[in-house]
Amino acid sequence: MQGTSEILEQAIEQLAKLPGTGRKSARRIALYLLKQQDENVMRLADALVNLKKSITRCSVCGVISDNDPCSICTNPKRDQSKICVVEESQDVFLIEKTNEFRGRYHVLGGVISPLDNIGPDDVRISELMQRINDEKQPIDEVILALNPDSEGEATAYYLNKLLKPFDEVEVTRIAYGIPMGSELEFIDEATLSRAFATRNTF
Length: 202
Known about the structure:
Number of domains: 2
Radius of gyration: 22 Å
CATH architecture of the largest domain: 3-Layer(aba) Sandwich
Number of helices: 7
Distance between the termini: 62 Å
CATH class of the largest domain: Alpha Beta
Number of strands: 6
Helix content: 40-55%
Shape: globular
Strand order of the largest sheet: 4-3-5-6
Low-confidence stretches: none
Mean pLDDT: 91
């Protein structure tokens, strides 16, 4: 069905490319923006352009940041001896919200996925090894905080194998299990199985 406005249809087409946004949602957003004051829409447009032009990645850890190096890597109060390895920048933001980890991070920028032709050279594994080999800042623990799917498991296994020769580096991984407040009947088998495998003493 042809739209009444080609310009509106172009906007809908672009908005529909956003993750989790279908054409119906994209149309609602476009029509909402049309009702807004010009300055509000321009502020949004400026923020998006600025996002693309000004945001950078930290050359040390790989997290999305305003500055290079990022505020986490330059913070002297962070534990320099611990590195938490994550898949993407959003994982850093989530972990930081918990206030549980006070070390530094390493963002791989993806995981090993043979089906998608993504090998170890396509993610930031060599940069991680360079950091571990840096004698100025000795690392005593690498925490693997990767998603518990097949690609995350393959990447964790590969990293663990790479780090085995480093006797002074302890390789740990975050525990996976049953979320608080959930009932066993609603937990899938893989999660329940992992909860048993990673059980701790009471």
